[in-house]
Amino acid sequence: MAKVLWIEKQIDYEPQGIMSMSAVLKQAGHDVQLAICTQEDPLDMAKKFQPDILGYSVMTGSQHYYFKLNQALKEVLPNKKVYSVFGGPHPTFFPELIHQDGVDGVCIGEGEGAIVDMANAITNGGFEPNIPNWWFKVGDDEIVKNPVRPLIRDLGELPRPDYALIYEKHRPTRESPIKHFMASRGCPYNCTYCFNHSWYKIYKREKRGYQYPVDYIIETVRWVKERYELEQVIFLDDLFIVFPDWLAEFAEHFSKEIGLPFFCNVRANLVTPKKVALLKKGGANTVSMGIETSNDQLRNELLKRRMSREEIIEAGRLLHEADIVLTSTNILALPTATLEDDFDTMRLNSEAKVKYAHAFLFQPYPATELGEFTQKNGFMRGSFEDIGTIAWDSSILIRDEHEKNQMENLQRWFALGVEYPWLEPLIQRLINIPRNKFTDIIYWWIHKLWKGNIIARRVHPININLSVIWNNARHFLEMDA
């Protein structure tokens, strides 16, 4: 039996990858524990648990935090052979981080089969580095680079994600009546700000997206519902309305067997009256749609979204008439975009009847087509290493400092401007105030309080009591989001 310790800096919501890998590891007879750095000392936990494997799931921007922590963890385990392995989006597209001090393995792509094979090899006492999906460091300078195995095509063969790993450790997530699930993996589209096109360079001959069977999803949600507080189900995946037959089966069974409202992601050019009716039948009360930008050239040529302004407005109309709350995602400060483009995006959200508009400042993530375009054309200040873990604080693009200040300030006022279009003249003035510690705090609180109020009251409405208000508010304010 191998002992695996996952390390997470903080828990914003259920980490789907870690829960799935924990489930397959436990199914194979291994011992899995989780350390959450914001609520316990991972060094103390590692000394007590004495893991064989230290696991990190890493997003771009967080890698340096985990590199430093990993070194500290290895120092408190000097007399034990422990493998430090890194997986997730950043290691998948930048496996060269294997050269970082203290990193023993990098997992590329899906991790379930890879982590079980590694744990089994350690348990059997004859560890060999020839395991698909892994790059391993052997000795001081040799790197073994293995090919990837095929994607998991029948997702129903996977065990139920290990929700207990998170809920038994993290009280805010356990007690929240809003919980997160996945109904599919993959995406058929090639938006330039997303890693999707790079993913399918790794998996060249794979189908672009696999759905979990409906009965698998029903049983997973039912298992959580029977054991923990649950009033609203959040589906995080991109494929939710792509396949009409799957959506029809889901709508038929979820409403009858679970009977809870749910949230999912939609795409404007896939929203039809029939699909809206199925969403309503299944119990959808809120959906999210990527608008990103109102400028046709930016949206369709720079971002490759392949949808019209009219389709966005029509999708909003259909959802509004079905009494389904529409939220949106938007990207401000895109390369070649102007402040007027961002204000027009705010207006388009109002026209599409968006009930809460999430606005992010563009970050040129490496391994994305748009990130590479930004760097190649000299739009970026610094390098990819300067990208932070959050996308709503500051832009690293090179542009006039005054316009940069305006765009960063607009991000905080954007949702209010969508809700109350008559505020635009005031917002036009407020964004001109230079950023400093005082204005940042004021604007941050305005943004946070409005977002928290709308999400709790409109986007994810739940039964409210003082305990729920206190726990959710404390967790919400502690999060970077």
Keywords:
alpha/beta; Rossmann fold; pyruvate-formate lyase- activating enzyme; globular
Helix content: 40-55%
Which fold does the CATH topology of the largest domain refer to? pyruvate-formate lyase- activating enzyme
Count of folded domains: 2
What would CATH call the architecture of the largest domain?
Answer: Alpha-Beta Horseshoe
Instruction: Specify the number of helices.
Output: 19
Q: What is the class of the largest domain in the CATH system?
A: Alpha Beta
Structural class per helix/strand content? alpha/beta
> Hey, roughly how much beta strand do the residues contain?
15-25%
Uncertain stretches of 5 or more adjacent residues: none
Give the N-terminus to C-terminus distance in angstroms.
Answer: 38 Å
Read across the widest sheet, the strand sequence of neighbours is 2-1-3-4-5-6-7
The CATH superfamily of the largest domain is known as tm_1862 like domain
Q: Mean pLDDT, as a whole number? A: 92
Number of strands: 15
Rg (CA only): 23 Å
Tell me the major beta sheet: 7 strands, mixed
Shape: globular
Structural features, described:
The chain has 481 residues and is an alpha/beta fold. The protein has two domains: 143 residues, Cobalamin-binding domain (Rossmann fold, 3-Layer(aba) Sandwich), CATH 3.40.50; 303 residues, pyruvate-formate lyase- activating enzyme (Alpha-Beta Horseshoe). The chain is 43% helix and 15% strand. Strand 6 and strand 7 form a beta hairpin. It is globular, with a radius of gyration of 23 Å. The chain starts with a strand and ends with a helix.
